[in-house]
Amino acid sequence: GKPICECYSCYGGNDCSLLLATCPADVEGGDPLFLEPFWIQNAANSAVVVAGWHRMSYFFPNQSYISKELEKNIRKIHAIAKNAITDGRYIVFGVGSTQLLNAAVHALSMESSSSSPFTTKVVANKIPYYSPYKFQTEFFQTLHYEFEGDSSMLKNKSDFGGNVIEFVTSPNNPDGNLRNSVLKGPNVKTIYDRAYYWPHYTAIPAPADEDLMIFSISKLTGHAGSRVGWAIVKDVNVYKRMMDFIDVAEMGTSKDGQLRALTLLKVVAQGDDKQLFNFAHQILSHRWEKLSRIFSLSKRFSLQRIPTQYCTFLDRIREPSPAYAWVKCKRKEDKNCTEIFRVAKIIGRPGSKFFAENRYVRLSLLKGQHDFEMLISQMKKLVSQEGGVG
Ligand code: PMP
């Protein structure tokens, strides 16, 4: 019959519980549905009911766009995860962290433009990198800034010909490695995209303490659809310019989104306050282990290397548990890795979307259990086909 709800791809039937056998493993996107079972376990205490009259205003009390309660809980979660220093820092909310990427570019490029005749150059740390840095910066380009690719062209220069903003993604999307800025000097500002700097995805060697760091609820609780992100900012003027950006672009972010985020973070922080982190870390480290074992049997494909590291959150050395597998097709003739995987019924994101060669493909490990299981079973088939050939 007609489904009662919209089913995710690969599911059908009346209540979307029927697995469609013909389906490929869709591991293209970064939808963090692996966290869904945690919220099913916590369904009652994470539910949000909002009466029709509630929070109708553009503002929270004191003409603020920001829920002070949510801000307080964000600081608390960072203290629990030991992943960022928030004392004495300002917090700006955005529509996802996506909006804050450009808010940060705007704020940092205005820093210098009154005194400098040059347009600020915006660069990404290193290839492979997350593509919105380029597409957003180009899309919104103003007289104050322009995108210049990755930092390799500027790396060995002593004079950058003006100011530079460098995006550093740490851990990196797609390869999960912790990264540091490449460019240094008085003319360089850095935006640290810390979307994946949670115990789910990486060792936390020390709390992050950069001037401008961007986080998101999408990769923390899995609620990408709520579109709630935040920036932690040291400098008051940068903070004010980012707030101006949000004011001009949006008149503040959704109060409903903030209310939902608050409810979720309260669940994360309550009782055994490591519960969500342990849950997420366990799933992803298990997935990585399983996938690594299959790749260890392959001569044709390889996975990225991520060093084991001491984690202050777990208080021990830990194995990797990245959000994505960054796969290399090693045979000379395998120039289009995504296509090889597509034929094997695994849909990944091509290396070129990260400005790398197409002999790389990114596979998401964040999706629901079904897609992961499909990935494992198709991957086993693909690797077993190598026998004798490879
Ligand atoms: N930064 C990185 C590195 C990401 O991978 C993502 C999401 N895939 C984002 C930012 C944006 O996330 P959101 O807008 O949902 O907060």
TrEMBL record:
Q: Which domain of life is it from?
A: Eukaryota
Molecular-function GO terms, alphabetical: carbon-sulfur lyase activity; transaminase activity
Coiled-coil boundaries: none
Q: Which UniProt keywords apply?
A: Aminotransferase, Pyridoxal phosphate, Transferase
Q: Does the keyword Isomerase apply?
A: no
Cofactor(s) this protein cannot do without: pyridoxal 5'-phosphate
Q: Name one GO biological process term.
A: amino acid metabolic process
- Is Transferase a UniProt keyword of this protein? yes
Query: What protein family does this chain belong to?
Result: Belongs to the alliinase family.
Q: What is this protein called?
A: Tryptophan aminotransferase-related protein 4-like
Taxonomic placement: Eukaryota, Viridiplantae, Streptophyta, Embryophyta, Tracheophyta
